[in-house]
């Protein structure tokens, strides 16, 4: 019995699950920061809100790495 394919599948599943749980944590951080009325320009605020919405949509679509990357842009703009 070859264990390598089974191990590879298990690792991918675990990694996917980890990213899936990372997205909601990032969205929560963004929401908390936005609730504190951060000192952003109107353009920055619009961009953060857009990235937040896109990140949630990507998360719901199962595209967790893309979601994390998109949410990271919002977090960076917020200084986090």
What does this protein look like?
With 80 residues, the chain is mainly α. It has one domain. The chain has three helices and no strands. Helix 1 packs antiparallel against helix 2 (42-60), helix 1 (4-35) runs parallel beside helix 3 (64-77) and helix 2 (42-60) runs antiparallel to helix 3. The radius of gyration is 16 Å and the shape is elongated. The model has no long low-confidence stretch (mean pLDDT 84).
Q: Helices and strands, in N-to-C order? A: HHH
Strand content: under 5%
Total number of beta strands: 0
How many domains, in number, for the residues? 1
Helical content class: over 70%
Number of helices: 3
The end-to-end distance, rounded to whole angstroms, is: 47 Å
Mean pLDDT: 84
Q: Which structural class do you get from the secondary structure elements?
A: mainly alpha
Low-confidence stretches: none
- Biggest sheet, in brief? none
């Amino acid at each position: 019995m070859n264990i390598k394919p089974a191990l590879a599948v298990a690792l991918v599943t675990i990694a996917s699950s980890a990213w899936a749980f990372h997205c909601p944590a990032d969205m929560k951080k963004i929401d908390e920061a936005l609730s504190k009325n951060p000192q952003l320009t109107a353009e920055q605020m619009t961009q953060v809100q857009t990235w937040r919405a896109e990140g949630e949509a990507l998360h719901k679509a199962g595209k967790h790495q893309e979601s994390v990357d998109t949410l990271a842009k919002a977090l960076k703009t917020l200084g986090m």
